[in-house]
Amino acid sequence: MRKNKFRLEKDSLGELPVPREAYFGIQALRASRNFPISGIPPKPIFIAATAMVKKAACIANIELGLIDKNRGPAIIKAADEVISGRFNDQFIVDVYQAGAGTSHNMNANEVIANLAIEILGGRRGDYNLVHPNDHVNMSQSTNDTMPTALRVAAIFSSGVLMEALIGLETELKRKAREFDRIIKSGRTHLQDAVPIRLGQEFGSYASSVRSSIEKIESAGVRLRRIGLGGTAVGTGLNTHPLYRKKVLRALSEVTGIRGLKRAPDAFEALNGASDYTAISSALNDAAIELIRIANDLRLLSSGPRTGLAEITLPAVQPGSSIMPGKVNPVMAEMLDMVCFQVAGNNLAVTLASQAGQLELNVMLPVINYNILQSIDILISSVKVFTEKCVKGINADPLRCRAYFENSVGLATVLNKFIGYEKAAMVAKESASTGKTLKEIVNEKGVMTEKEWDRLLDPLSITEPENPAGKIRR
Question: Is 84 helix (H, G, I), strand (E, B) or coil?
Answer without folding.
Answer: coil
